[in-house]
Design goal:
The protein has 500 residues and is of the alpha/beta class. The protein folds into 2 domains: 13-234, 3-Layer(aba) Sandwich (Rossmann fold); 239-483, Rossmann fold (3-Layer(aba) Sandwich), CATH 3.40.50. The chain has helices at residues 13-16, 37-50, 64-73, 109-123, 133-140, 143-157, 179-184, 254-259, 280-293, 307-316, 321-327, 342-355, 366-372, 379-392, 417-420, and strands at residues 26-31, 55-59, 82-85, 127-131, 163-168, 187-194, 202-210, 219-225, 228-232, 269-274, 297-302, 330-334, 358-364, 396-402, 423-432, 435-445, 454-460, 463-469, 473-474, 482-483. The chain is elongated.
């Protein structure tokens, strides 16, 4: 029978490892300085403490005060972890108690290793973090002797049922990974830290090797905040599927629902595209309020507009989102540009769907999503994977896509509409009778029937209204709409006074 897995203590990493680490093995944790190795090593030991295991942290590079400072920054205490600082163990090396500091490079390699082994024998730990191999490499003087010593450490720990993490900061080999270490270790985890031209630095993790474990490969975004490191597993939509009924989702406005034969279907993505101010966000609010009125959970992610502005707009339409926020049905989250990685955002969405059972999710806007993470690679592909996941969960996704220019043209952003969306609602401006008016039409609906007509859209204190077909209307698809019909065919404000 295979040994049970042990947890790493790092949120999300055990999901990547599909359950955790195989106990009693030696693992390599590598990464440049500042990538989070010490934090991850401490979390591994704290998880052992929670399991009532003896844990040993061996530091060759940092002092105990520095390690304690790292722990304190996260609100942790090292009281239950045996912290062994080599530089303060001079008396064991024969230097006498009068000498309180011996730098690692002044100690013979053999004596150093013997000292470490002696400490392990005294503590009898179940988990050990060895930080770091760069000092051992320095003491070894040449690569062959260094590799022999690492192999000797592995042989020593073999059979003792101790799970060991060797930390390597990649400084000894000019930042180049040691293939020999990779071959010796049972598993290899790599941390990276990338500084962007603007915004917070991005961290990510990759499990390069893990014998006997079917882990989730590739890079996964990482954040370090007070409380520790969090890993956001890369989203694979095909791994998540929930049975659901693909029924139509009504907006609460019968004329708007009629454009789509009852409304967009659950498990589809609706793209609302058009120039700024044409009514895209307003219609999305209408769908959100109608879902909350049915008792369904809704989450709105605001990349562009402030939450206060959104709330004021909803109230101007005669809607009260405040009561749904208080009841927990509606959640509006402000996403700060340049402060979030795509993997973290996908994880937030996943938590909303799986924990709050969200049925309608709104991203406002797609341009804000793309602009807030300009240096991320394959961002559009990650967005597509996120939308595929939402589809598998039966969530209706409303995606706001502002077109370039105030008045807008048929050219959109770099996003391929047909590639992302099942339903596309096009919003346009047009001029008639000396007034700037709005129009809406359905370009496509993969879920079935939709009207091919162009209808007027109006918003007032009573909400959203959809007018009659604009039969005497031309030029909307060219981006220069013009109304040439008779007077009295258009929507007037419900507050307008009738002429005498």
């Amino acid at each position: 029978m295979a040994d049970p897995r042990i947890l790493t203590g790092t949120a999300g990493l055990d999901i990547v490892l599909r359950g955790g680490l195989t106990p009693g093995r030696l693992y390599l944790l590598e990464g440049a300085p500042g990538s989070g190795k010490t934090t991850m090593g401490l979390q591994f030991l704290f998880e052992g403490v929670r399991q009532n295991e003896k844990c040993l942290y061996i530091t060759l590079s940092e002092t105990s005060e520095e390690i304690a400072a790292v722990a304190d920054s996260h609100g942790w205490t090292l009281d239950k972890i045996d912290l062994f600082e080599l530089s303060s163990a001079a008396d064991v090396l024969g230097g006498g108690r009068e000498q309180t500091l011996i730098h690692p490079w002044e100690v013979e390699l053999t004596a150093t290793v013997e000292l470490l082994i002696k400490r392990v024998e005294e503590v009898s730990p179940k988990r050990v973090v060895f930080d770091s191999l760069s000092e051992l490499r320095l003491l070894s003087q040449d690569s062959l002797r260094y590799r022999r010593q690492v192999l000797a450490l592995k042989q020593y720990f073999a059979g003792k049922n101790i799970t060991v993490i060797l930390v390597d900061d990649l400084t000894g080999g000019n930042g180049v990974r040691d293939a020999h270490l990779h071959s010796l270790a049972h598993g290899v985890i790599t941390l990276e830290r990338n500084t962007l031209e603007f915004g917070a630095a991005r961290r990510r993790i990759e499990v390069q090797k893990m014998r006997g474990i079917d882990f989730i490969g590739g890079f996964h975004d990482v954040t370090i905040q007070r409380g520790g490191m969090k890993v956001y597993p890369r989203l694979i939509a095909s791994h998540h599927h929930t049975e659901f009924s693909g029924t139509a989702v009504p907006s609460g406005v019968p004329e708007l629902d009629a454009l789509l034969g009852g409304g967009p279907l659950r498990g589809t993505c609706t793209l609302l595209t058009g120039p700024a101010g044409a009514g895209k966000s307003t219609v999305s609010i209408q769908y959100a309020m109608a879902a909350c009125a049915r008792g369904e959970a809704v989450t709105m992610y605001q990349f562009d507009e402030r939450i206060g502005t959104l709330m004021a707009r909803a109230r101007s339409m005669g809607l009260d989102p405040g009561k749904y926020i208080q009841s927990g049905l509606l959640k509006i989250e402000q996403v700060e540009p340049a402060e979030i990685a795509p993997g973290e955002f996908a994880w937030r969405v996943r938590q909303e769907v799986e924990q709050r059972q969200v049925r309608v999710l709104i991203i406002d806007s797609m341009n804000g999503y793309l602009v807030s993470m300009p240096e991320e690679k394959q961002l559009l592909l990650q967005l597509h994977e996120l939308l595929a996941y939402l589809s598998q969960q039966g969530v209706l996704t409303l995606l706001i896509n502002p077109q370039s220019g105030l008045m807008g043209t048929m050219s959109t952003s770099q996003v391929n509409i047909s590639y992302l969306a099942d339903v596309v609602l096009l919003f346009r401006f047009f001029e008639a009778e000396g007034r700037l008016r709005k129009a809406v039409s359905v370009i496509k609906n993969r879920g079935g029937y939709h009207e091919d007509s162009i209808r007027e859209l109006a918003v007032d204190s009573h909400g959203v209204r959809i007018g009659e077909r604009l039969t005497d209307f031309k030029g909307v698809m060219t981006g220069t709409p013009e109304y040439i019909g008779a007077e009295g065919r258009l929507i007037e404000s419900r507050t307008d006074a009738q002429p005498e």
